[in-house]
Amino acid sequence: MSKILFTAILLVFSLSVLSQEKMPKVAREFRGMWIATVANLDFPSKQNLTAEQQKAELIKLLDLATELRMNAVIFQIRSMGDAVYYSDIEPASPFITGQMGENLPFDPLKFLLDEAHARGILVHVWLNPYRASSPFYTGELPPNHVANTHPEWIRPYSNYKMLDPGLREVQDYLVKIVNDVVTRYDVDGVHFDDYFYPYPDAKQSDFPDEETYKTYKQNGGKLGKEDWRRKNVDDLIQTVSAEIKKIKPNVMFGISPFGIWKANDIDIIGTSSYDAQFADSRKWFQEGWVDYLSPQLYWSTTKNGQKFPVLFGWWKNENKKKKHLWVGLAPYKIGDEKYPDYSSKEIETQIGMIRGTLTDNAGAIHFRALSIAENKDGIKDYLRDKVYRGNAIIPVTPWLDTTAPTSAELTVSKQSDGTVQANWKGTGAKSAFRWILYWNDGQGWKPTIIPQQTTRADLPPNMNVQKVGIAAVDRLGNISEATIKEVK
User: Fold this and answer.
1) What's the confidence (pLDDT) of residue 3?
2) From 115, 187, 306, 449, which residue has the greatest number of CB atoms within 10 Å?
3) Per the confidence metrics, is the pTM higher than 0.85?
């Protein structure tokens, strides 16, 4: 055998052995925070800021997510028939400009998507489906607002104007809005909150949809009024879920319902979303119409009648389709005298319970961004230094996609001062969203998770790096085979 051939065989064998090395697992956890735009809760801080001021505020929120090693934000783009993005269907949000329908100074959603993705942060767009107006805005509704274009769809309730969920035209309209956003924007998920039929108001006996229900009965409908209402919401959820997947199969659909499905079902007291809002959230979970459910478990581990461990355990047991259970948590309660049982330690305890039960499928979403930034009881420091000490990629979603990205190209060189420089780039059609950089100092592999925009690492001499590896991660947490190179 010639020396050249022997060397080539040896090289192939060496590379093969390296590529088969078992790489260590990295942390998997969905870590998100809600960014509320309604009433300027999180963004923007006030109305009528310039485009540059608003961009700076969005960057600050993303910096917060990065500092806390979060990997997702849930950004509210529609709270009351308005749009925090460029829309030809609904008027621009008054919480951006001060007056509903005035031109936005820039597209907040597009800007946030670009900046978040560059940092390896997912963006789920948060919409409130049925609310058409609220007391948070008392100005004039413009001509293209749904309350003016279709007043026959509107039902007044309490201090709100609501779209009637019993009308098929309303469902079609809402599906059209979701489809428009998913089609035109590079979103990672669509998110509904806990508002369906409105929360009961003691001053108003019932939601005014008697005429809609009467029409349903006249057309042969057999359901009682409460079951009919639940079916109206069910139909929207099922349709939105299917339509999203038709447009972009990898875009997630998630809902954060009120945390109690039915009071007394598990010795729990309080409002039942099933009865009060006609939101059968357990059904959506059990039927698999959502990719993730984030019940708002805004109670402490010691709250009698509403204990977090009891509610969390119940929701876990109802997850028949093995979808994601990424729990909604309430740091906004910290420092509020109405909630003396809430503290940073309470949030840590709840996350510990989630992790201990769900392991590689754990996840939580925090309400809300500025409640963390205010750092009451040191919650921001607590999350950064104690709870989220290392980066994590999201749990896999095998029912959407199991295809890993193509392995990256990697070059490794040792500099004159002993620094090991690694450079890499993605290959193939499926681009990386984040990278996992591995290095081996002779004592085993160590991983670190880094954003997509980083394509170089300089590993100092004191790390004694002997091998370097790089793997690509897509938006759904699928990891490529690691490309490995020896340091020579």
Assistant:
1) 44
2) 187
3) yes
